[in-house]
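Annotators were shown the component list below and the corresponding predicted structure, then asked to write short factual statements about the assembly.
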Amino acid sequence: MTAALETTGLGKRYRRRWALTDCTITIPAGRVVGLVGPNGAGKTTLLQLAVGLLRPTVGRVTVLGGQPAESPEQLGRVGFVAQDTPTYAGLSVADHLHLGAWLNPRWDEDMAQERIGRLGLDPKQRAGKLSGGQRAQLALTLAIAKRPELLLLDEPVASLDPLARREFLQHLMEAVADQELSVVLSSHLVADLERVCDYLVVLAGSKVQLAGDVEELLATHHRLIGPRREPCTMPSDQEVVGMSQTERQSTFIVRCDGPILDPAWTVESLSLEDLVLAYMARDSEPKRQRRSHLGVVG
Amino acid sequence: MIEFHLDTRSGVSPYLQIVQQVRRALRLGLLHEGDQLPTVKEVVARLAINPNTVLKAYRELEHEGLVGARPGVGTFVTKTLSDGSVVAAHGPLRQDLKRWLGKARRAGLDDESIEALFRDTFRSAEEQGVA
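Structure shown to annotators:
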């Protein structure tokens, strides 16, 4: 099956600063992918490279087997909702639908009308007068009614209140169930994505820290709590992702495919949030401290 | 028709929560043979969860022989876990439990201690082969 999104050694530099470096990922089709990372981690850059709004400085990006934005046909296969779900403030809801119908060869007018009706939006209302939640739903309607195979959403729920957030994700998941759509959505909050995504990509410090199937990731990561122990004494099949030490106690977050057999450890499972935070912290650790860790290990 | 709900802080994976809720509904007699489960679309539209999660739960239930999928129609219950006599026994058992809870409270136990005591007794009874 063709991957929804595939990158090889992808990097993007703005003047002197690298916003994304050495990004190599393969995202299978039919998944709902959470792209998570702190602000400035490179999430928007990666999405815009995938849409074709940006060109890579180095490396390659392939979307649904083709180059981003290489042809009108390719443009039609990818839906994109930019940050803060922008709409045209001066245009009415109906104008937005006309625009969508004119610009998109595969536009599904019935679905667009049905959604607008169900959302209770007044077609004559100007988009600038809509609430944040309504505007987000309008942007989502436009993106879904173009019948894309891959839908990319940049922080779609960040500015919404909890109720609007839930409603937005409900509609998005309904569309996924209906249309066999691949989705990549970014957020700096894992909690937003926990229920909806089945594949996770963690970006931090312009690098991919972690990528994989959510269930697989949760099954292979554990929190070990026990008497103090140096990380260099851990078995080689247990990769230490994070740790904290007191004089007497060690708490490790490890990645390990097999079971943890050492009876000295209390083994706990991790929530998705714990997991993501552990990988994010790995990047933000001061370099000096990190080197000393490596010194211990090596 | 039943509705699912999700406890994201329980540590139980969402797909397993759906499986457990169907089993519980079957045991309590809320679902009978021939009843339809909510469609995948209905569940995701309500809970805002990934459709694959629901599909996985339904597949697991199918594997257990509790439900069957009729393509294009939906998923239906094919087996009943409760028989009338078991459900009928719930009432008196619930009464006993309420009486016991009252006793535990009068003895000064708080919620946490009551739960811990129940779990502990349940486990040790299970080990002795009583339960």
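Statements collected:
1. The radius of gyration of chain A is 22 Å.
2. Chain A touches chain B through 21 residues (CB under 8 Å).
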